[in-house]
Amino acid sequence: MSKHNIDTERVITEVRIRPPLWDLSHDLFKDKDAKLQAWFGVYKALLPDFNDLSENDKKDFEKSVQQRWRTARDAYMRCKNSMKSVKSGSEGGKRTKYVFFKHLQFLDKKHVADTEDSIEENETREDTQQDSNLESPINPRSTETVSTNPETQPQCSSQVR
């Protein structure tokens, strides 16, 4: 088989647009068939004549693409984790970021998106409750209530470092 030149940035882009391959909170993340279909989409995007390859060449290409993805993802995670432990100031030294660091930051954004969705849901729920001027009980049989006053709600920060 002639070695195919696999562009890491393109692999990252193709995986990013297929959340079942990387988003643990996605409904299809644990669906093996959905993942196989998603990977097939990645292979076809990277190599339009993928279907014309022999079975052995297909397996080699699949293995190479998935290895390229794992290597990029793991390098990003190592870089991100090492940045947490770097000292600031003169003791910190100069660390260069992983070459695809910015391309892989979408791996963190799912947590921010989940937080933002949750905040929006809470705001919508609070608006509905404020419209009816009711404080709703946590449990219908309980006398404990949930405050809908924004000043008493815990403050969240979705700041990404």
TrEMBL record:
Q: Which GO terms describe its biological process?
A: regulation of transcription by RNA polymerase II
Q: Which SMART domains match?
A: MADF
Gene Ontology, cellular component aspect? nucleus; transcription regulator complex
Compositional bias per record (Acidic residues), positions renumbered to this chain: 115-124
Q: Which InterPro entries match?
A: MADF-dom, TF_Adf1
User: According to the UniProt entry, which residue ranges have a biased composition of type Polar residues?
Assistant: 130-161
The UniProt annotation puts the region (Disordered) at 114-161
Please report the stretch or stretches of sequence annotated as the MADF domain.
10-112
Q: What is this protein called?
A: MADF domain-containing protein
Species for this entry: Parnassius mnemosyne
